[in-house]
Amino acid sequence: MEVNVENVPQDLWEISGAAAKYAAVISRVLRVDVEIVDGNLYRVAGTGRFSGLVGKQMSSASGVYRQVLKTGRPLVIREPGFSEFCADCPNWQSCDETFEMSTPILYRGTVVGVIGFVCFTEEQKAHIQDNFEVFFDFLAQMADILASKVVESMEYARSLALGQLLETVVDKVDEGVLLLAPDGRIVRSNRAAQQILDFPLEGQDAIKVELLRGETRLLQYTEYTVSLQGRSHDVAGNEYRLQHGESSSMFMFRDAQLMHDDALRLASSHERLGLDAILGTSDVIVTLKEQVARFADSNSSVLVTGESGTGKELVARALNEEGGRKEGPFVAINCGAIPETLLESELFGYVGGAFTGANPKGKMGRFEQANGGTLFLDEIGDMPLHLQAKLLRALEQREVTRLGSTQPTAIDVRVVSATNRNLEEMVHNGTFREDLFYRLNVIPIHIPPLRERPRDIHLLSKVFLEQSMDRLDKEILTIKESFWSAVSEYHWPGNVRELQNSIEYVANVVDSPAVITRETLPLKVRSGMHESEYADYNLETMERTLIQQALKAFGDETGTKAAKERVAQKLGIGIATLYRKIKKYGLE
Protein backbone atom coordinates (compact mmCIF):
# COMPACT_ATOMS: atom_id res chain seq x y z
CA MET A 1 0.00 0.00 0.00
CA GLU A 2 1.44 3.33 -1.10
CA VAL A 3 0.44 6.15 1.23
CA ASN A 4 0.71 9.80 0.27
CA VAL A 5 2.72 12.02 2.62
CA GLU A 6 2.62 15.20 0.53
CA ASN A 7 0.78 18.23 1.84
CA VAL A 8 0.49 16.61 5.27
CA PRO A 9 -0.80 19.04 7.94
CA GLN A 10 1.55 19.83 10.84
CA ASP A 11 -0.84 18.28 13.35
CA LEU A 12 1.84 16.40 15.27
CA TRP A 13 3.53 19.66 16.19
CA GLU A 14 0.22 20.95 17.53
CA ILE A 15 0.22 18.09 20.05
CA SER A 16 3.98 18.05 20.74
CA GLY A 17 3.35 18.34 24.49
CA ALA A 18 1.09 15.30 24.49
CA ALA A 19 3.52 13.47 22.21
CA ALA A 20 6.35 14.08 24.68
CA LYS A 21 4.20 12.76 27.53
CA TYR A 22 3.26 9.59 25.66
CA ALA A 23 6.86 9.03 24.61
CA ALA A 24 7.89 9.24 28.28
CA VAL A 25 5.17 6.76 29.29
CA ILE A 26 6.11 4.29 26.55
CA SER A 27 9.81 4.61 27.42
CA ARG A 28 9.11 3.94 31.08
CA VAL A 29 6.78 0.97 30.43
CA LEU A 30 8.87 -0.71 27.72
CA ARG A 31 12.28 0.34 29.14
CA VAL A 32 13.53 1.54 25.74
CA ASP A 33 14.30 4.85 24.02
CA VAL A 34 11.34 6.30 22.09
CA GLU A 35 11.10 8.89 19.32
CA ILE A 36 8.20 10.37 17.39
CA VAL A 37 8.84 11.98 13.99
CA ASP A 38 6.55 13.81 11.58
CA GLY A 39 6.05 13.21 7.87
CA ASN A 40 9.14 15.29 7.04
CA LEU A 41 11.33 13.32 9.47
CA TYR A 42 11.52 16.09 12.06
CA ARG A 43 11.61 14.75 15.63
CA VAL A 44 8.53 15.84 17.53
CA ALA A 45 9.40 14.02 20.76
CA GLY A 46 12.13 11.76 22.09
CA THR A 47 13.49 10.16 25.24
CA GLY A 48 16.96 9.05 26.34
CA ARG A 49 19.48 9.45 23.53
CA PHE A 50 16.86 11.22 21.39
CA SER A 51 15.75 13.79 23.98
CA GLY A 52 18.27 16.37 22.79
CA LEU A 53 17.32 15.97 19.12
CA VAL A 54 13.70 17.23 19.29
CA GLY A 55 13.02 19.75 16.53
CA LYS A 56 15.87 18.48 14.35
CA GLN A 57 15.47 16.69 11.06
CA MET A 58 16.84 13.19 10.77
CA SER A 59 19.89 12.61 8.55
CA SER A 60 20.40 9.88 5.97
CA ALA A 61 20.32 7.41 8.87
CA SER A 62 16.53 7.21 8.58
CA GLY A 63 15.87 4.45 6.07
CA VAL A 64 13.58 2.58 8.44
CA TYR A 65 11.30 5.56 9.08
CA ARG A 66 11.27 6.47 5.38
CA GLN A 67 10.01 3.00 4.62
CA VAL A 68 7.26 3.23 7.26
CA LEU A 69 6.20 6.65 5.90
CA LYS A 70 6.17 5.24 2.37
CA THR A 71 4.20 2.06 3.03
CA GLY A 72 2.12 3.01 6.06
CA ARG A 73 3.00 -0.34 7.65
CA PRO A 74 4.86 -1.23 10.87
CA LEU A 75 8.45 -2.35 10.51
CA VAL A 76 10.48 -4.48 12.92
CA ILE A 77 14.28 -4.59 12.65
CA ARG A 78 15.58 -7.50 14.71
CA GLU A 79 19.23 -7.08 13.68
CA PRO A 80 19.98 -3.37 13.14
CA GLY A 81 22.88 -2.79 10.77
CA PHE A 82 22.08 -5.87 8.69
CA SER A 83 18.69 -4.82 7.30
CA GLU A 84 18.30 -3.60 3.73
CA PHE A 85 16.82 -0.41 5.14
CA CYS A 86 20.08 0.30 7.01
CA ALA A 87 22.14 0.30 3.81
CA ASP A 88 22.23 4.10 3.43
CA CYS A 89 23.03 4.74 7.07
CA PRO A 90 26.63 6.06 7.49
CA ASN A 91 26.87 4.34 10.89
CA TRP A 92 25.66 0.88 9.89
CA GLN A 93 29.04 -0.78 10.50
CA SER A 94 29.30 0.62 14.05
CA CYS A 95 25.59 0.52 14.89
CA ASP A 96 25.00 -0.04 18.63
CA GLU A 97 21.25 -0.65 18.32
CA THR A 98 20.00 -4.18 19.10
CA PHE A 99 16.32 -3.95 18.12
CA GLU A 100 13.94 -1.44 16.52
CA MET A 101 10.18 -1.33 16.06
CA SER A 102 8.39 1.45 14.16
CA THR A 103 4.68 2.10 13.59
CA PRO A 104 2.98 4.71 11.36
CA ILE A 105 0.75 7.42 12.81
CA LEU A 106 -2.30 7.69 10.55
CA TYR A 107 -4.55 10.73 10.40
CA ARG A 108 -7.66 10.23 8.26
CA GLY A 109 -5.87 7.66 6.12
CA THR A 110 -2.70 9.72 5.71
CA VAL A 111 0.64 8.99 7.36
CA VAL A 112 1.52 12.04 9.45
CA GLY A 113 4.46 10.52 11.29
CA VAL A 114 6.13 7.51 12.86
CA ILE A 115 6.41 6.34 16.45
CA GLY A 116 9.24 3.95 17.15
CA PHE A 117 11.38 2.58 19.88
CA VAL A 118 14.98 1.42 19.91
CA CYS A 119 16.83 -1.04 22.13
CA PHE A 120 20.53 -0.54 22.85
CA THR A 121 21.21 -3.60 25.02
CA GLU A 122 20.58 -7.31 24.68
CA GLU A 123 18.64 -7.18 27.96
CA GLN A 124 16.19 -4.65 26.49
CA LYS A 125 15.85 -6.73 23.33
CA ALA A 126 15.11 -9.91 25.28
CA HIS A 127 12.50 -8.08 27.38
CA ILE A 128 10.67 -6.92 24.24
CA GLN A 129 10.87 -10.27 22.47
CA ASP A 130 9.56 -12.12 25.53
CA ASN A 131 6.43 -9.93 25.43
CA PHE A 132 6.43 -9.17 21.69
CA GLU A 133 2.73 -9.38 20.93
CA VAL A 134 1.66 -7.31 23.93
CA PHE A 135 4.19 -4.57 23.22
CA PHE A 136 3.58 -4.61 19.45
CA ASP A 137 -0.14 -4.02 20.04
CA PHE A 138 0.66 -1.43 22.70
CA LEU A 139 2.83 0.58 20.30
CA ALA A 140 0.29 0.34 17.47
CA GLN A 141 -2.53 1.54 19.68
CA MET A 142 -0.36 4.32 21.08
CA ALA A 143 0.04 5.48 17.48
CA ASP A 144 -3.75 5.46 17.15
CA ILE A 145 -4.08 7.44 20.36
CA LEU A 146 -1.63 10.07 19.09
CA ALA A 147 -3.65 10.37 15.90
CA SER A 148 -6.90 10.61 17.83
CA LYS A 149 -5.45 13.43 19.91
CA VAL A 150 -5.44 15.52 16.77
CA VAL A 151 -9.19 15.10 16.55
CA GLU A 152 -10.59 16.66 19.72
CA SER A 153 -13.94 14.89 19.25
CA MET A 154 -12.10 11.61 19.96
CA GLU A 155 -10.56 12.82 23.22
CA TYR A 156 -12.67 10.60 25.45
CA ALA A 157 -11.98 7.49 23.34
CA ARG A 158 -8.26 8.27 23.40
CA SER A 159 -8.21 8.59 27.17
CA LEU A 160 -10.21 5.44 27.73
CA ALA A 161 -7.98 3.47 25.36
CA LEU A 162 -4.87 4.75 27.13
CA GLY A 163 -6.09 3.48 30.48
CA GLN A 164 -7.02 0.09 29.07
CA LEU A 165 -3.65 -0.24 27.38
CA LEU A 166 -1.76 0.70 30.52
CA GLU A 167 -3.66 -1.93 32.45
CA THR A 168 -2.67 -4.62 29.93
CA VAL A 169 1.05 -3.99 30.40
CA VAL A 170 1.18 -2.90 34.04
CA ASP A 171 2.22 -6.35 35.26
CA LYS A 172 5.01 -6.54 32.66
CA VAL A 173 6.93 -3.77 34.41
CA ASP A 174 9.42 -4.49 37.19
CA GLU A 175 8.79 -1.13 38.90
CA GLY A 176 5.88 -0.40 41.19
CA VAL A 177 2.90 0.99 39.24
CA LEU A 178 -0.24 2.64 40.60
CA LEU A 179 -3.13 3.87 38.49
CA LEU A 180 -4.93 6.38 40.69
CA ALA A 181 -8.43 7.87 40.56
CA PRO A 182 -8.91 11.64 40.92
CA ASP A 183 -9.62 11.19 44.66
CA GLY A 184 -6.45 9.13 45.18
CA ARG A 185 -8.07 5.68 45.25
CA ILE A 186 -6.12 2.81 43.66
CA VAL A 187 -7.72 1.82 40.36
CA ARG A 188 -5.02 -0.68 39.38
CA SER A 189 -1.65 -1.78 40.75
CA ASN A 190 0.97 -4.38 40.00
CA ARG A 191 2.69 -6.91 42.23
CA ALA A 192 5.82 -4.75 42.66
CA ALA A 193 3.70 -1.88 44.02
CA GLN A 194 1.88 -4.21 46.41
CA GLN A 195 5.20 -5.58 47.71
CA ILE A 196 6.96 -2.23 48.12
CA LEU A 197 3.97 -0.51 49.77
CA ASP A 198 2.77 -3.63 51.60
CA PHE A 199 -0.95 -3.65 50.74
CA PRO A 200 -3.17 -6.53 49.55
CA LEU A 201 -4.66 -6.92 46.09
CA GLU A 202 -8.07 -7.61 47.55
CA GLY A 203 -9.94 -4.44 48.38
CA GLN A 204 -7.29 -2.16 46.84
CA ASP A 205 -9.97 -0.02 45.22
CA ALA A 206 -10.94 1.19 48.70
CA ILE A 207 -7.37 2.27 49.55
CA LYS A 208 -6.62 5.98 49.17
CA VAL A 209 -3.06 7.06 48.40
CA GLU A 210 -1.43 10.43 49.10
CA LEU A 211 1.69 11.38 47.18
CA LEU A 212 3.99 14.00 48.70
CA ARG A 213 6.64 15.10 46.23
CA GLY A 214 10.10 15.84 47.63
CA GLU A 215 12.81 18.08 46.22
CA THR A 216 15.59 15.49 45.90
CA ARG A 217 16.37 13.84 42.57
CA LEU A 218 17.73 10.29 42.37
CA LEU A 219 19.06 9.55 38.90
CA GLN A 220 16.00 10.08 36.64
CA TYR A 221 13.55 9.84 39.55
CA THR A 222 12.14 12.19 42.19
CA GLU A 223 11.79 11.30 45.87
CA TYR A 224 8.20 10.88 47.09
CA THR A 225 6.57 10.00 50.40
CA VAL A 226 3.65 7.66 49.75
CA SER A 227 1.01 7.53 52.53
CA LEU A 228 -1.68 4.85 52.69
CA GLN A 229 -3.46 2.89 55.43
CA GLY A 230 -1.82 5.02 58.13
CA ARG A 231 1.71 4.21 56.94
CA SER A 232 4.33 6.16 55.01
CA HIS A 233 6.90 4.84 52.55
CA ASP A 234 9.87 6.62 50.99
CA VAL A 235 10.10 5.85 47.28
CA ALA A 236 11.70 7.29 44.15
CA GLY A 237 9.48 7.64 41.11
CA ASN A 238 7.65 9.74 38.54
CA GLU A 239 4.00 10.74 38.25
CA TYR A 240 2.22 10.99 34.90
CA ARG A 241 -1.06 12.87 34.53
CA LEU A 242 -3.42 10.86 32.31
CA GLN A 243 -6.83 12.52 32.82
CA HIS A 244 -8.86 9.71 31.36
CA GLY A 245 -12.01 7.95 32.51
CA GLU A 246 -11.54 6.40 35.90
CA SER A 247 -7.79 7.01 36.27
CA SER A 248 -6.29 10.49 36.53
CA SER A 249 -2.63 9.60 37.01
CA MET A 250 -0.06 6.85 36.82
CA PHE A 251 2.71 6.65 39.42
CA MET A 252 5.76 4.48 38.68
CA PHE A 253 8.32 4.05 41.45
CA ARG A 254 11.07 2.05 43.10
CA ASP A 255 12.27 1.59 46.66
CA ALA A 256 14.15 4.76 47.67
CA GLN A 257 16.97 2.98 49.48
CA LEU A 258 17.74 0.85 46.44
CA MET A 259 17.77 3.99 44.33
CA HIS A 260 20.14 5.66 46.80
CA ASP A 261 22.48 2.69 46.39
CA ASP A 262 22.27 2.90 42.59
CA ALA A 263 22.86 6.66 42.65
CA LEU A 264 25.84 6.20 44.94
CA ARG A 265 27.42 3.60 42.70
CA LEU A 266 26.98 5.77 39.64
CA ALA A 267 28.26 8.88 41.38
CA SER A 268 31.23 7.22 43.05
CA SER A 269 32.20 4.67 40.43
CA HIS A 270 30.93 6.20 37.19
CA GLU A 271 34.47 6.25 35.83
CA ARG A 272 36.38 2.98 35.93
CA LEU A 273 40.03 3.95 36.03
CA GLY A 274 42.67 1.24 36.23
CA LEU A 275 46.38 1.14 35.49
CA ASP A 276 45.82 2.38 31.92
CA ALA A 277 44.80 5.76 33.33
CA ILE A 278 48.28 6.24 34.83
CA LEU A 279 50.12 7.58 31.79
CA GLY A 280 53.87 7.44 31.35
CA THR A 281 56.75 5.23 30.26
CA SER A 282 59.50 6.57 32.52
CA ASP A 283 61.18 4.17 34.95
CA VAL A 284 59.55 5.76 37.98
CA ILE A 285 56.06 5.37 36.49
CA VAL A 286 56.74 1.78 35.47
CA THR A 287 57.78 1.08 39.06
CA LEU A 288 54.68 2.87 40.35
CA LYS A 289 52.40 0.72 38.19
CA GLU A 290 54.14 -2.41 39.42
CA GLN A 291 53.47 -1.34 43.00
CA VAL A 292 49.79 -0.71 42.30
CA ALA A 293 49.40 -4.11 40.62
CA ARG A 294 51.20 -5.85 43.50
CA PHE A 295 49.11 -4.27 46.26
CA ALA A 296 45.71 -4.05 44.52
CA ASP A 297 44.34 -7.26 46.03
CA SER A 298 45.48 -6.43 49.56
CA ASN A 299 42.99 -5.11 52.12
CA SER A 300 45.70 -3.21 54.01
CA SER A 301 45.62 0.58 54.21
CA VAL A 302 47.63 2.54 51.66
CA LEU A 303 49.16 6.00 52.05
CA VAL A 304 49.78 7.75 48.73
CA THR A 305 52.16 10.70 48.94
CA GLY A 306 53.27 13.22 46.38
CA GLU A 307 53.09 16.87 45.46
CA SER A 308 49.81 18.49 44.52
CA GLY A 309 48.67 17.58 41.03
CA THR A 310 50.68 14.38 40.64
CA GLY A 311 47.59 12.17 40.36
CA LYS A 312 47.11 10.63 43.80
CA GLU A 313 43.42 9.92 43.21
CA LEU A 314 44.25 8.11 39.96
CA VAL A 315 46.47 5.75 41.93
CA ALA A 316 43.74 5.25 44.54
CA ARG A 317 41.18 4.42 41.84
CA ALA A 318 43.62 2.05 40.15
CA LEU A 319 44.14 0.21 43.44
CA ASN A 320 40.36 -0.28 43.60
CA GLU A 321 39.90 -1.19 39.93
CA GLU A 322 42.76 -3.68 39.69
CA GLY A 323 41.84 -5.61 42.84
CA GLY A 324 39.06 -7.72 44.24
CA ARG A 325 37.02 -4.67 45.23
CA LYS A 326 36.47 -3.42 41.68
CA GLU A 327 32.77 -4.32 41.81
CA GLY A 328 32.36 -2.31 45.00
CA PRO A 329 31.99 1.47 45.26
CA PHE A 330 34.87 3.92 45.17
CA VAL A 331 34.00 6.82 47.48
CA ALA A 332 36.25 9.87 47.76
CA ILE A 333 36.24 12.69 50.28
CA ASN A 334 38.61 15.65 50.53
CA CYS A 335 39.32 16.15 54.22
CA GLY A 336 40.64 19.65 53.59
CA ALA A 337 37.70 20.89 51.54
CA ILE A 338 34.93 20.19 54.09
CA PRO A 339 34.47 22.43 57.15
CA GLU A 340 35.64 20.80 60.36
CA THR A 341 32.13 21.03 61.83
CA LEU A 342 30.70 18.95 58.97
CA LEU A 343 33.54 16.51 58.34
CA GLU A 344 32.56 14.12 61.14
CA SER A 345 28.97 13.75 59.92
CA GLU A 346 30.20 13.33 56.34
CA LEU A 347 32.50 10.49 57.34
CA PHE A 348 30.35 8.67 59.87
CA GLY A 349 26.80 9.80 59.07
CA TYR A 350 24.07 10.75 61.53
CA VAL A 351 20.62 9.72 62.66
CA GLY A 352 17.54 11.91 62.31
CA GLY A 353 17.53 14.85 64.71
CA ALA A 354 21.19 14.43 65.64
CA PHE A 355 21.75 18.18 65.39
CA THR A 356 20.02 21.37 64.27
CA GLY A 357 19.50 21.42 60.53
CA ALA A 358 20.04 17.69 60.13
CA ASN A 359 17.93 15.74 57.67
CA PRO A 360 15.08 14.23 59.73
CA LYS A 361 15.62 10.96 57.88
CA GLY A 362 19.29 10.80 58.86
CA LYS A 363 22.20 10.35 56.49
CA MET A 364 24.59 7.58 55.60
CA GLY A 365 28.27 8.46 56.06
CA ARG A 366 31.05 7.90 53.55
CA PHE A 367 32.30 4.82 55.42
CA GLU A 368 28.94 3.10 55.04
CA GLN A 369 28.66 4.24 51.43
CA ALA A 370 32.02 2.65 50.66
CA ASN A 371 31.11 -0.68 52.26
CA GLY A 372 32.51 -3.50 50.13
CA GLY A 373 34.76 -1.09 48.24
CA THR A 374 37.36 1.61 48.78
CA LEU A 375 37.24 4.86 50.76
CA PHE A 376 39.70 7.49 49.50
CA LEU A 377 40.67 10.07 52.14
CA ASP A 378 42.34 12.88 50.23
CA GLU A 379 44.35 15.55 52.10
CA ILE A 380 44.37 13.36 55.21
CA GLY A 381 46.93 15.69 56.79
CA ASP A 382 44.20 18.33 57.16
CA MET A 383 42.04 16.18 59.41
CA PRO A 384 41.65 17.68 62.92
CA LEU A 385 43.06 15.75 65.88
CA HIS A 386 39.75 14.89 67.53
CA LEU A 387 38.53 13.22 64.33
CA GLN A 388 41.81 11.38 63.93
CA ALA A 389 40.99 9.46 67.10
CA LYS A 390 37.55 8.47 65.79
CA LEU A 391 39.02 7.48 62.42
CA LEU A 392 41.57 5.27 64.19
CA ARG A 393 38.81 3.48 66.10
CA ALA A 394 36.86 2.89 62.89
CA LEU A 395 39.92 1.37 61.23
CA GLU A 396 40.83 -0.84 64.17
CA GLN A 397 37.32 -2.01 65.08
CA ARG A 398 35.98 -2.09 61.48
CA GLU A 399 32.76 -0.41 62.54
CA VAL A 400 31.32 3.09 62.68
CA THR A 401 28.68 4.78 64.80
CA ARG A 402 26.54 7.54 63.35
CA LEU A 403 26.27 10.84 65.19
CA GLY A 404 23.38 10.69 67.64
CA SER A 405 23.38 6.88 67.73
CA THR A 406 24.83 4.29 70.07
CA GLN A 407 24.43 1.42 67.65
CA PRO A 408 27.65 0.61 65.71
CA THR A 409 27.55 -0.58 62.10
CA ALA A 410 30.07 -3.13 60.81
CA ILE A 411 31.98 -2.06 57.69
CA ASP A 412 34.20 -3.76 55.14
CA VAL A 413 36.20 -0.90 53.67
CA ARG A 414 39.71 -0.54 52.35
CA VAL A 415 41.09 2.90 53.18
CA VAL A 416 43.47 4.66 50.80
CA SER A 417 44.75 8.01 52.07
CA ALA A 418 46.67 10.71 50.28
CA THR A 419 48.60 13.82 51.26
CA ASN A 420 51.13 16.28 49.93
CA ARG A 421 52.26 17.06 53.47
CA ASN A 422 55.04 15.48 55.54
CA LEU A 423 53.03 13.38 58.01
CA GLU A 424 56.13 12.17 59.82
CA GLU A 425 57.07 15.75 60.61
CA MET A 426 53.49 16.43 61.69
CA VAL A 427 53.73 13.46 64.06
CA HIS A 428 56.90 14.94 65.56
CA ASN A 429 55.16 18.30 65.90
CA GLY A 430 52.15 16.72 67.59
CA THR A 431 49.66 17.72 64.88
CA PHE A 432 49.07 14.17 63.62
CA ARG A 433 48.56 11.06 65.72
CA GLU A 434 51.45 8.65 65.52
CA ASP A 435 49.23 5.56 65.93
CA LEU A 436 46.96 6.71 63.10
CA PHE A 437 49.97 7.41 60.88
CA TYR A 438 51.20 3.85 61.26
CA ARG A 439 47.69 2.48 60.70
CA LEU A 440 47.33 4.44 57.43
CA ASN A 441 50.89 3.91 56.24
CA VAL A 442 50.87 0.11 56.10
CA ILE A 443 51.62 0.28 52.36
CA PRO A 444 53.34 3.53 51.33
CA ILE A 445 53.24 4.58 47.67
CA HIS A 446 55.03 7.73 46.51
CA ILE A 447 54.23 9.48 43.23
CA PRO A 448 57.21 11.38 41.79
CA PRO A 449 56.71 14.97 40.57
CA LEU A 450 56.52 15.61 36.84
CA ARG A 451 59.96 17.28 36.78
CA GLU A 452 61.49 13.92 37.79
CA ARG A 453 59.91 12.18 34.80
CA PRO A 454 60.71 14.52 31.86
CA ARG A 455 60.35 11.68 29.37
CA ASP A 456 56.62 11.54 30.14
CA ILE A 457 55.92 15.21 29.46
CA HIS A 458 55.80 14.71 25.69
CA LEU A 459 53.43 11.72 25.97
CA LEU A 460 51.12 13.43 28.46
CA SER A 461 50.99 16.62 26.39
CA LYS A 462 50.07 14.67 23.26
CA VAL A 463 47.32 12.68 25.00
CA PHE A 464 45.83 15.74 26.73
CA LEU A 465 45.96 17.74 23.49
CA GLU A 466 44.15 15.04 21.50
CA GLN A 467 41.49 14.67 24.20
CA SER A 468 40.87 18.41 24.51
CA MET A 469 40.73 18.98 20.76
CA ASP A 470 38.29 16.07 20.33
CA ARG A 471 35.98 17.49 23.01
CA LEU A 472 35.95 20.84 21.21
CA ASP A 473 35.60 19.20 17.79
CA LYS A 474 38.80 20.79 16.51
CA GLU A 475 41.53 19.35 14.32
CA ILE A 476 45.31 19.60 14.69
CA LEU A 477 47.15 20.62 11.54
CA THR A 478 50.66 20.57 12.98
CA ILE A 479 52.60 20.93 16.24
CA LYS A 480 55.70 23.07 16.03
CA GLU A 481 58.98 22.25 17.76
CA SER A 482 58.73 25.51 19.73
CA PHE A 483 55.72 24.04 21.55
CA TRP A 484 57.61 20.91 22.57
CA SER A 485 60.61 22.95 23.68
CA ALA A 486 58.42 25.14 25.89
CA VAL A 487 56.63 22.29 27.65
CA SER A 488 59.93 20.46 28.14
CA GLU A 489 61.71 23.48 29.63
CA TYR A 490 58.95 24.52 32.01
CA HIS A 491 59.28 23.30 35.61
CA TRP A 492 55.58 22.34 36.10
CA PRO A 493 55.22 23.11 39.82
CA GLY A 494 51.55 22.08 39.53
CA ASN A 495 52.61 18.76 38.00
CA VAL A 496 50.24 16.75 35.78
CA ARG A 497 47.19 18.82 36.76
CA GLU A 498 48.90 22.05 35.66
CA LEU A 499 50.04 20.42 32.42
CA GLN A 500 46.54 19.19 31.65
CA ASN A 501 45.01 22.60 32.38
CA SER A 502 47.60 24.34 30.22
CA ILE A 503 46.94 21.99 27.30
CA GLU A 504 43.18 22.55 27.68
CA TYR A 505 43.89 26.29 27.46
CA VAL A 506 45.75 25.69 24.19
CA ALA A 507 42.81 23.75 22.74
CA ASN A 508 40.45 26.61 23.56
CA VAL A 509 42.52 29.44 22.05
CA VAL A 510 43.55 27.85 18.75
CA ASP A 511 41.50 27.80 15.55
CA SER A 512 40.71 24.66 13.59
CA PRO A 513 42.66 23.20 11.88
CA ALA A 514 45.23 24.29 14.47
CA VAL A 515 48.91 25.09 14.30
CA ILE A 516 50.20 24.44 17.84
CA THR A 517 53.18 26.64 18.78
CA ARG A 518 54.88 28.03 21.86
CA GLU A 519 52.73 31.15 21.56
CA THR A 520 49.54 29.17 22.08
CA LEU A 521 50.62 28.17 25.61
CA PRO A 522 49.65 30.17 28.73
CA LEU A 523 51.87 33.21 29.36
CA LYS A 524 53.63 31.82 32.44
CA VAL A 525 54.62 28.66 30.54
CA ARG A 526 55.91 30.40 27.44
CA SER A 527 57.25 33.60 29.02
CA GLY A 528 60.85 34.15 30.00
CA MET A 529 60.24 33.17 33.62
CA HIS A 530 62.43 30.11 33.12
CA GLU A 531 60.92 28.10 35.91
CA SER A 532 63.91 25.76 35.73
CA GLU A 533 65.95 28.48 37.41
CA TYR A 534 63.63 28.15 40.40
CA ALA A 535 63.37 24.36 40.34
CA ASP A 536 64.71 24.07 43.85
CA TYR A 537 63.13 27.23 45.19
CA ASN A 538 60.52 25.51 47.35
CA LEU A 539 59.59 25.59 51.04
CA GLU A 540 62.23 23.07 52.06
CA THR A 541 64.95 25.07 50.28
CA MET A 542 63.76 28.25 51.98
CA GLU A 543 63.71 26.53 55.35
CA ARG A 544 67.21 25.13 54.88
CA THR A 545 68.54 28.56 53.87
CA LEU A 546 66.87 30.25 56.86
CA ILE A 547 68.28 27.73 59.37
CA GLN A 548 71.72 27.99 57.78
CA GLN A 549 71.66 31.79 58.06
CA ALA A 550 70.42 31.64 61.66
CA LEU A 551 73.20 29.25 62.65
CA LYS A 552 75.71 31.62 61.15
CA ALA A 553 74.20 34.76 62.71
CA PHE A 554 73.29 33.55 66.20
CA GLY A 555 75.45 30.49 66.74
CA ASP A 556 79.15 30.43 67.34
CA GLU A 557 82.18 28.53 66.13
CA THR A 558 81.97 26.01 68.99
CA GLY A 559 78.51 24.76 67.95
CA THR A 560 77.63 24.27 71.61
CA LYS A 561 74.20 23.30 72.91
CA ALA A 562 73.74 26.80 74.29
CA ALA A 563 74.42 28.29 70.86
CA LYS A 564 71.86 25.99 69.23
CA GLU A 565 69.28 26.82 71.94
CA ARG A 566 69.78 30.48 71.08
CA VAL A 567 69.25 29.70 67.36
CA ALA A 568 66.09 27.68 68.14
CA GLN A 569 64.74 30.56 70.23
CA LYS A 570 65.34 33.05 67.44
CA LEU A 571 63.61 30.76 64.92
CA GLY A 572 60.68 30.11 67.25
CA ILE A 573 61.05 26.32 67.22
CA GLY A 574 61.98 23.71 69.81
CA ILE A 575 65.57 22.55 70.27
CA ALA A 576 64.62 18.97 69.29
CA THR A 577 63.06 20.25 66.05
CA LEU A 578 66.20 22.28 65.30
CA TYR A 579 68.46 19.21 65.77
CA ARG A 580 66.19 17.17 63.51
CA LYS A 581 66.23 19.77 60.75
CA ILE A 582 70.01 20.26 61.04
CA LYS A 583 70.39 16.55 60.46
CA LYS A 584 67.77 16.53 57.68
CA TYR A 585 69.50 19.28 55.70
CA GLY A 586 73.07 18.13 56.42
CA LEU A 587 74.04 21.26 58.37
CA GLU A 588 76.03 19.49 61.11
TrEMBL record:
- Which superkingdom does the taxonomy of this entry point to? Bacteria
Which Pfam families does the entry link to?
Answer: AAA_lid_14, HTH_8, Sigma54_activat
Residues of the Sigma-54 factor interaction domain:
278-508
Checking PROSITE patterns in the record gives: SIGMA54_INTERACT_1, SIGMA54_INTERACT_2, SIGMA54_INTERACT_3, SIGMA54_INTERACT_4
Answer whether the UniProt record assigns the keyword Transcription regulation to this protein: yes
Xref: Gene3D superfamilies: 1.10.8.60, 3.30.450.40, Homeodomain-like, P-loop containing nucleotide triphosphate hydrolases
Record key words, sorted: ATP-binding, DNA-binding, Nucleotide-binding, Transcription, Transcription regulation
What the entry lists under PANTHER family is as follows: PROPIONATE CATABOLISM OPERON REGULATORY PROTEIN, TRANSCRIPTIONAL REGULATORY PROTEIN
Q: Write down what this protein is called.
A: Sigma 54-interacting transcriptional regulator
Q: Which organism is it from?
A: Pseudodesulfovibrio methanolicus
